[in-house]
Design brief:
11 strands, mainly beta, 4-stranded antiparallel β-sheet, globular
């Protein structure tokens, strides 16, 4: 398995930007990487995915505003979030998945408010 440590997040005004980072304890080359978010009292939902082979995918609500990227050499995944809206307020989680193994970061609060 791999341990995931997140950084970034915080409070931002509507229209602002934030970047979340996720550092893995080992190589992520064989992992499908993703970012999820969880609203209070709701289940986690996928925001953006970046499989080890294939194209990135985004939830409709963030398409055109969020960008997922990965740096396999540094074992890192990023989520660049632009034009943030109050509806993006949630706890965000990094996820690494392969062969039925799922690993999660500790979660990062993102609050969009004026």
């Amino acid at each position: 398995q791999v341990q995931l440590v997140q950084s970034g997040g915080g409070l931002v005004e509507p229209g602002g930007s934030l970047r979340l980072s996720c550092t893995a304890s080992a190589s992520i080359v064989d992992y499908d990487m993703a970012w999820y978010r969880q609203y209070l009292g709701k289940q986690r939902e996928a925001v953006a995915t970046f499989p080890n082979f294939g194209d990135t995918n985004y939830a409709g609500s963030v398409k055109g505003r969020f960008t997922i990227s990965r740096d396999n050499a540094r074992n890192m995944v990023y989520l660049q979030m632009n034009n943030l809206k109050p509806g993006d307020t949630a706890v965000y989680y990094c996820n690494a998945r392969r062969l039925g193994e799922a690993n999660w970061g500790q979660g990062t609060q993102v609050t969009v408010s004026s």
